[in-house]
Design brief:
Blueprint: H1 12-22, E1 26-28, E2 35-37, H2 39-58, E3 62-63, E4 69-71, H3 72-77, H4 79-82, E5 90-94, E6 97-99, E7 106-108, E8 113-120, H5 125-135, E9 144-153, E10 167-176, H6 180-201
Parallel strand pairs: 3-9
Antiparallel strand pairs: 1-2, 4-8, 5-8, 6-7, 9-10
Helix pairs in contact: 2-6
Length: 206
């Protein structure tokens, strides 16, 4: 088996891909840019997720889930924030398919065009903060400490399994605080959580 693995010193990129393939962690899917995470690879993700989830909850965070689709107008309000993602966004323009009367199989129904396009989330800031705006009526509603485990889509065509794919799994924490000081303290606390996870669970040297 070892003879099928490219030597790391010769070609680091190919060595990495060989390891992923031989360990049976993942493979490219029929959807260009996307991958299939195989059972062993997904089991590793589950263990990582379980450890991080416990750490998050120990710091007072709760899990929630927000929609996969974001109205385009939400992103338009945050144009500077989304600028880096703009070329990577997948856009939903129609809500229905139909059988082609000319025998062309399934086609998009031209009469089912959405009045407002939906963006498949590249990140969830805009829709999460739209909700927070409704939830926060006074300082008594703070802090809000929420984490989301989700998938996101950033249309990446030059793929590398686990590192660069169009769709990937992740988590994103979004908190709201009464003061700047509290927000900074929360940020520093969570950076320590990530560092502890990377160094002491994943054995990565930072």
């Amino acid at each position: 088996m070892a003879d099928k693995i490219t030597k790391r010193a010769e070609d680091y990129s190919q060595w990495y891909l060989d390891i992923v393939k031989i360990a049976d962690l993942a493979e490219h899917s029929d959807v260009k840019g996307c991958m299939i995470i195989k059972p062993y690879g997904y089991a590793i993700w589950e263990k990582m997720k379980d450890v991080l989830d416990k750490k998050f909850k120990e710091t007072g965070h709760s899990n929630a889930y927000f929609p996969l689709f974001i109205p385009k107008s939400y992103l338009s309000k945050e144009a500077s924030h989304v600028e880096g993602f703009a070329k990577e966004c997948a856009v939903v323009t129609h809500y229905r398919l139909k059988v082609d009367e000319n025998g062309g199989g399934i086609i998009v129904d031209p009469e089912a065009k959405l009045t407002e396009e939906l963006i498949v989330r590249p990140t969830s800031e805009t829709i999460i903060w739209s909700s927070y705006k409704k939830w926060i009526q006074s300082y008594r509603d703070l802090p809000i400490l929420i984490n989301q485990w989700a998938n996101v889509v950033r249309w990446e065509m030059r793929t590398r399994l686990f590192l660069r794919t169009a769709e990937f799994l992740w988590q994103e924490g979004h908190t709201a605080h009464a003061t700047k000081t509290e927000a900074i303290e929360e940020t520093e606390k969570m950076l320590d959580v990530y560092a502890d996870f990377a160094e002491n669970f994943m054995a990565c040297l930072l």
